[in-house]
Amino acid sequence: MATGMIVKALSGFYYVQTEDGVFQCRGRGNFRKRQIKPLVGDEVQFEAENKTDGYILDVFERKNELIRPPIANVDQALLVFSALEPDFSPLLLDRFLVHIEGNGLKAVIIISKVDLLTQTSLEEIVIHKKLYEKIGYTVLLTSTSNSNGIEEIIPHLRGKVSVVAGQSGVGKSSLLNSLKPELNIETNAISTHLGRGKHTTRHVELLQIGDGLVADTPGFSSLDFVDLEAEDLSNCFPEMAHLSSDCKFRGCTHTSEPKCAVKAALEQGEVSESRMKHYMQFLDEIKSQKRRYD
User: Fold this and answer.
1) Which of 25, 185, 258, 267 would suit a FRET pair with 200, their CA atoms being 20 to 30 Å apart?
2) What pLDDT is recorded for position 191?
3) What residues have CB less than 8 Å from 79, skipping those under 6 apart?
4) Where would I find the EngC GTPase domain in this sequence (predicted)?
C-alpha cells in the first residue's frame, strides 16, 4: 500500500501523485455505500501493481471541501480581477472574499491589465490596493505583458494547493498559461455583448506550477450566500471579526445595536465605508434569502 494525492479525476479514474510518479486508480467498490466520493486534492491510501491499475482504499480526513469546483484540501484562492475590460469591481471582490473567508481559505488578490489604465485610474487602483493590504490581504498588480508582474505570483504558490477565481473574462486561463506556458490551456475571448467569458475547462486537475499545485478550473461558480448565517457574516470581514468581541451584545450584527465596536471603528476610519456598505448589502441579501426559505 502507498499514499498520495489525487491530482486529476476523469471518467471514473483517479490519478494519484506520489514521489514515484502518477498512478491511475479506480475507487473502491464500497465507497458508494459509505457515501464517500474521492476528490481532487484528497490524500488517499491506495494499492497498485503498476502505474495504470490501482485501487484507492481509503480517503484521509479533509481540512476543507469545495463544491464548485469539486476539490478538497485547498489552501488559498488566487482572485483575479481586471483593472479594465471588465472594470474593477470592489463589490464583486468583497463577495468573493466573503466566500473565501467562509471556506477558511487564504486569498491572494491579483489585479490585471493595470498598464491599460490612465494615471488617474491607476491611482484609484492603488488606493484599493492599499485598502485591502491594510486589512491583511496580499494584492499583486500585473500587466497585459506576460512577464510583467507574473513572476511575483510564483512565490505565493510555494507549498500550497490553490484555486483560481474571480471576474469572468479577466483571463484566468491566460494567467495560468503565463505562469507555465507549456500548459497551453484553451482560452475563449471575452464576449463583448455579454461582458463575460465562457468556462472552457471540463474537469478538475491540479497543475504543478512553481513549487505548488494550482487547479485549472474556475472556482466558486456560485456566489449565493445560502450556507452563511447573518450572525456569521462579519467573521468573513477580517477587520470586523477581531472587533466583534468588543461589542456589547454577543451576535451583534453591527447595524442598530448600541455600543457596537465595529460602528465605532467605522466612525474613526478604521473600517472603510465601502466595505461596510457591502457588508450591509450582503446582510440584507442573507436575511431576505432566509425569509424566502422559511
Assistant:
1) 25
2) 35
3) 93, 96, 97, 100, 107, 108, 109, 110, 165, 166
4) 72-221
